[in-house]
């Protein structure tokens, strides 16, 4: 069995021991080395050539964001940041994702005494999936892009109804993928955009604020009972479920509900949102499913297709993790599959 080497970077000896213990419980992973600050991390990446790096953000001498940027300049190695669960921790985490980190995980989730085995499994699977997808990406670079599957073109099935809303669903690798799409929406876009990004509670507000600084459209976190407006990009708040409701005046508004008693793993859940949106917008709904772990979105896309809507999925060769798009692909619930750099162009053909 192939094993993947992990470089653990943290200035806390306690955290290094915790993370090492968690990683070495899984037979597919082993700790290839440790580093105590950013300078040592750069040196260890060069000397040890790990398959993936877990990187603390706050460290002396050189912090994790600076180290991330240096490593990404020199090596094509995936990096998962370890973040603090605070509003102050959210902003540098978003900065790290913007600088090229594949994903992040909350330290507090890994070190609490009553930590759930599901949380540990999710962390481990995140590392494994990111490494395996990176290896697949390198293989995909050799594949002729003309062989990409495009059902809409093959069937000569051009959209026959104007799109009235764009919904984008993503998870692992999403913030970086969104950077290639959201800032490039034209300033005169005539429909609202709703983004569902899997994140811990408190992080989507910082994500929205950051995108609002460099997007041509206004970006904000969605609010309960807020009416959707054309030309806005809404980020569904993490820790809650976001559904769409048709009002008596024929306008559509958000319903943001507390999901603390919700057994759904994903909050926000792409499935939950799409199931509410599909009957309202029918063939005027356009969905894009981007990189992410798991299969959230496949049930919702079934509802979208049953109501005449359209679905774009990201290709395996550009996904950080080809999980969510793969689930939709295998269920044959998509219209077109394209690499990330072509997703925006494809979206705009429907608007």
From TrEMBL:
GO cellular-component term (any): cytoplasm
- Compartments, as annotated in UniProt: Cytoplasm
Post-translational modification 4-aspartylphosphate, affected residues:
56
Main subcellular location of this protein, as a coarse class: cytoplasm
* Residues covered by the CheB-type methylesterase domain: 159-351
List of catalytic residues: 171, 198, 296
- Record field: catalytic activity: [protein]-L-glutamate 5-O-methyl ester + H2O = L-glutamyl-[protein] + methanol + H(+); L-glutaminyl-[protein] + H2O = L-glutamyl-[protein] + NH4(+)
Q: How is it modified after translation?
A: Phosphorylated by CheA. Phosphorylation of the N-terminal regulatory domain activates the methylesterase activity.
GO biological process entries:
chemotaxis
Source superkingdom:
Bacteria
Q: Which InterPro entries match?
A: CheB-like, CheB_C, CheY-like_superfamily, Sig_transdc_resp-reg_Me-estase, Sig_transdc_resp-reg_receiver
Question: Which SMART domains does the record match to this protein?
Answer: REC
The protein's GO terms of the molecular function aspect are: phosphorelay response regulator activity; protein-glutamate methylesterase activity; protein-glutamine glutaminase activity
UniProt keyword annotations, A-Z = Chemotaxis, Cytoplasm, Hydrolase, Phosphoprotein
Tell me the ranges covered by the Response regulatory domain, including all copies. 5-122
Please state the Enzyme Commission number of this protein.
3.1.1.61, 3.5.1.44
| Functional summary from the UniProt entry | May play the central regulatory role in sporulation. It may be an element of the effector pathway responsible for the activation of sporulation genes in response to nutritional stress. Spo0A may act in concert with spo0H (a sigma factor) to control the expression of some genes that are critical to the sporulation process.
For this protein, the record's HAMAP family field holds: CheB_chemtxs (MF_00099)
**Family as reported in the entry's similarity comment:** Belongs to the CheB family.
Q: Anything noted about its domains? A: Contains a C-terminal catalytic domain, and an N-terminal region which modulates catalytic activity.
- Name it: Protein-glutamate methylesterase/protein-glutamine glutaminase
Give the originating organism: Thermoanaerobacterium aotearoense SCUT27
